[in-house]
Design a protein that fits this description.
With 298 residues, this protein is of the alpha/beta class. It has one domain. 43% of the residues lie in helices and 13% in strands. Strand 3 and strand 4 form a beta hairpin. Helix 3 packs across helix 7 (155-162), helix 9 runs antiparallel to helix 10 and helix 9 (193-202) packs across helix 11. The protein is globular and about 55 Å long.
Length: 298
């Protein structure tokens, strides 16, 4: 994809990132990354704080991360509190989100201002560095014109920083010691699904060190699925973190040799970054995500 077309493609909303009739809510939000993160934290709450029982929310809001698109998310935000997104919400009014959800919100706001942005699905290395475990994680990339490059932002981890005084002392200490810049995430701390696939297939990494905190969610099939989710993100079809279509899912964990070869090619293709809308669509078809599946995404 020629550079100008490449950037134009990611500066336009997709089916999932579009705010639809709530576009006006995003118009006044600053696109300065620290300020943008701070605004998101005023109406979205990360799942970690609820899981650790640091903050309590109504039980019916626990399933907020199943809300797929930004228009539906913003509708829910306004149903709970119809004031400006610049106004901080109380705990019972927050929209709960995981790393995918906050990254998608950031992506939508940036695209609303014609700033090229996209989600990346992959793995974070910082959750359990001592055991060399790499956990499922999502970030948002935006195009920095001054640096002529993509910059990765982690709004989920930024909220951990934002609320660090609320954290247990051991977690607070670990956060302070971690040299992590959520406004410019380095390759040391995040790898895409394709990078993880290549690490496992070519660089001797154990695929069982890639997954989630749930013991059964790990292995080669999980790395494959995160790479496919990343491919979907690059097609502006941002899935839920647990969406599994076509060849995806644990039930398809027995990956045949011809499929491995096809996935190897996809990983090299994504790593090279030399793609366009047509070639991205072709790669989706190669993993059997066809037009009927795409039409079913809402």
């Amino acid at each position: 994809m020629k550079s100008e077309n490449f950037l134009e493609y990611y500066s336009e909303q997709g089916l999932i990132s579009s705010p639809g009739s709530y576009k006006h809510l995003l118009d006044d939000i600053s696109t300065e990354i620290p300020n943008l993160c701070e605004v998101i934290h005023k109406f979205m709450l990360i799942d970690l704080l609820v899981t650790m029982q640091i903050i309590s929310i109504p039980q019916k809001h626990i399933s907020d991360s199943n809300i797929r698109g930004i228009e539906s998310k913003l509708k829910e935000v306004m149903d709970r509190d119809d004031s400006s997104l610049l106004n901080p919400r109380s705990n019972e009014k927050f929209l709960l989100g995981n790393c995918r959800d906050l990254s998608l919100m950031m992506c939508s706001i940036l695209r609303n201002n014609k700033i090229p942005a996209r989600l990346r699905s992959g793995f974070a290395t910082f959750f359990d560095p001592f055991q060399k475990k790499n956990f499922d994680h999502w970030v948002c990339e935006y195009w920095d014109k001054s640096k002529n490059s993509w910059i990765r932002v982690d709004p989920w981890m930024n909220q951990v920083h934002f609320r660090k005084e609320s954290l247990p002392s051991d977690l607070f200490k670990g956060l302070i010691e971690l040299d992590y810049n959520p406004y410019d995430v380095s390759n040391e701390y995040f790898m895409t699904g394709a990078e993880a696939w290549i690490n496992c297939r070519e660089n001797g990494h154990d695929p069982n060190n890639y997954g989630t905190y749930e013991e059964e969610l790990k292995g080669t099939w999980f790395v494959r699925d995160n790479m496919i989710r990343d491919l979907l993100c690059l097609n502006k079809l941002e899935p839920l973190a647990w969406d599994c279509w076509a060849i995806m899912g644990r039930e398809n964990s027995n990956i045949k040799s011809e499929e491995l070869e096809s996935l190897d090619k996809i990983a090299v293709f994504l790593n090279a970054g030399d793609f366009n809308k047509d070639t991205l669509s072709e790669k989706l078809e190669s993993v059997k995500i066809n037009k009927s599946i795409i039409k079913s995404i809402k």
